[in-house]
Amino acid sequence: MTFSLILMALSATLSSAVPLSGNWSSISPSPDIHWHSCYNDTLQCTRLLLPLDWPAHENTTTSPPLPPPLSEQDATVAIAIIKLPAAVPRTHPTYAGPIFTNPGGPGGSGVDFLLRLGRYLQRVVDKPGTRRYDIVSFDPRGVGLSTPAVDCFADNPAARDALFLEGRGTWGLDRGDSAITYSKAVMQAYGQRCKNSKGARVLAYVGTPSVARDIVAMADKIDEERRRSIDADTYPADDNVEQRQLELKRSTATDPQDVVRVQYMGFSYGTILGNYLASMFPGRLGRMLLDGVCDIHDYVSGPGWLNHLYDTDELFDTFLHGCHLAGPSLCALTISSDSSSLDLRERLLDFLTSLDTQPQPVLSSDSTIVILSGNDVRTLIGYSLYSPLTYFQSFSKTLSAAMTGNLTVLADALLRGGYVPNHSSQATCSTPGPLQDTPTGIEGLHAVLCSDAIDVTSMDTAWWSDYIRKQLSFSSIFGAYWASLRFACAGWRFRANWSFKGPFTTPTPDSHRLAGRPEAPILFLTSRLDPVTPLSNARLMAANHHDAAVVIQESLGHTALISAPSRCTAKIVADYFHLGTVPDSEMSCQEDCGPWDVDCHLFNHEPSQDMTAANFLDATALRVFRQDQQQLRLPKHPLGV
């Protein structure tokens, strides 16, 4: 459910905000960690070689059986890893190690995520004078800057857009059996295209169990590099450092209580990845925070993505109610004659119904043709609910303009968000951003989602019709679009080489690092009203893990930490990473400000001109936030699905 807030549009936005250079092509992948300065020398980057096929590498039992062995050149993946270093040296007594982050998806770029939110998260967890952390993120195998990439259209990117356009004419999966039948044919063609692509052999090796194992390996390798670096600084160059490191590695490997413990923050789908990590490797768990919680049982063995829209329409109604209370100065949708938010709701639903009945031909600002349907506008509304701080005020202006005749603003929003392919000269000839030389499709999402979950390729029209009906019963606003995410698996032809179906639980934590046990309980966070990961999921998942706790932030939007600032939530999180303790019972925290307050955002001060790592990221994040507001960037899959 990667929220990264705006990850799909982040690369282009970042490149216009500040000059960035990751210089990833200059970093040679290695089986060991070698950090390189990157992004204005404010961050550190590396590319780590890991086994493509973990079960074969470690001789573990898997189901289904392993595919034929790959050639030598295909035996590894190179994982792109990025680090925001701690504010103190690694030898300092307050240095507390790395915290791994995942923004969701599946298929969300951790590199993009750290560039946008790394400094904010570091401020949340740090306790100056007591604990200082590295913030680490990565592009999961097959995604973004990690190689080989999951890309079914590498030889012809325009074919991806052509396939996408094939499906737009149905106006949505809720338009009846004919729309389902036609759309299934589109998905079957998509699956065939991926099967025939040059990168097809990678598609079975990007499932969540493999990514969870990657995290354990990354933690070990980062710790090895830290020890190696400290050793080199401590002992003379002519000492036998290699022999000492070998002895250290051997002693660590034989002492299960001294293994490297993973500290992790996962958002949206990142909570699924975290659940896999905790359940498969409980003895490697140090601290784990899961925010914006997905139902792992529905994801793995249920219909899939079905238990996610319980609170969506209530959040939509809360948006309308808040709009009415805020008044025309902050919310352009409301008018002086409205007696309540019900008047506003009626106008908006009438507008949607008119587009359902008669889609409109619209030219965008750059003259791109867009056929605007009610399904398009509902999808934009649904994604605006992800980040009320960013979108409630600005999107109300867009909706108001559209409802009074200016449909161009909605066409522009669809193009900016990637809902309609944009082949204008401005879009295709602009200077590429630092991350735009990587695949931009969503095959990475499907490669993980479809192969982790049950196989739905044999499901008939009646099954899909019932599935879509259930999604619509949960949310009339977002149900049809949400159903399309799982529907993409209707023609997917790949199963993960490594399957883990649970149990998704952890043993009783032990702060003394008893072998096989987590060091601390898991902390689950949620906003009060989340459009795609409801509060009920957090409670359900916490019940499966010994001593876990749920903290509810009284805010609106996807995830707690990213939906609104809250000193209360931040203190609980910082204390948790420091002490490993969670509240004794479910508790709630108030937000510091909300979507109808003036200039409310996560970045709590104007950064100085001193381009330290912290200030560089603050400047970048704040500029991107304001550009998103002003330009109404509503990309697909912000912070995950």
Describe the secondary-structure layout.
Layout lengths: L1 E2 L3 H11 L18 E3 L4 E9 L2 H5 L17 E9 L10 E8 L7 H16 L6 E8 L17 H12 L8 H20 L11 H27 L6 H13 L8 E6 L1 H12 L4 E7 L4 H6 L10 H15 L14 H17 L2 E4 L5 E4 L1 H11 L3 H16 L4 H10 L7 H5 L13 H10 L8 H14 L4 H9 L35 E7 L5 H8 L6 E8 L10 H13 L7 E4 L22 H19 L7 E2 L1
Parallel strand pairs: 5-6, 5-7, 7-8, 8-11, 11-12, 12-13
Antiparallel strand pairs: 1-14, 2-3, 3-4, 4-6, 9-10
CATH architecture of the largest domain: 3-Layer(aba) Sandwich
- Care to count the β-strands? 14
Mean pLDDT: 86
Please summarize the sheet with the most strands: 10 strands, mixed
Strand content: 5-15%
Q: Distance between termini?
A: 3 Å
- In the sheet with the most strands, the strands line up as 2-3-4-6-5-7-8-11-12-13
Q: What's the helical proportion of residues?
A: 40-55%
**Structural class of the helix and strand makeup?**
alpha/beta
Number of helices: 21
- Overall shape: it is globular
The gyration radius over C-alpha positions equals 24 Å
| CATH topological fold name of the largest domain | Rossmann fold
The overall number of domains is 2
Weakly predicted, low-confidence segments: 1-19, 62-71, 247-254, 425-439
CATH homologous superfamily of the largest domain - what is it?
Alpha/Beta hydrolase fold, catalytic domain
Q: In the CATH hierarchy, what is the class of the largest domain? A: Alpha Beta
Domain Peptidase S33 tripeptidyl aminopeptidase-like C-terminal: 476-589
Pfam families: Abhydrolase_4 (PF08386)
Protein name: Peptidase S33 tripeptidyl aminopeptidase-like C-terminal domain-containing protein
Keywords: Hydrolase, Signal
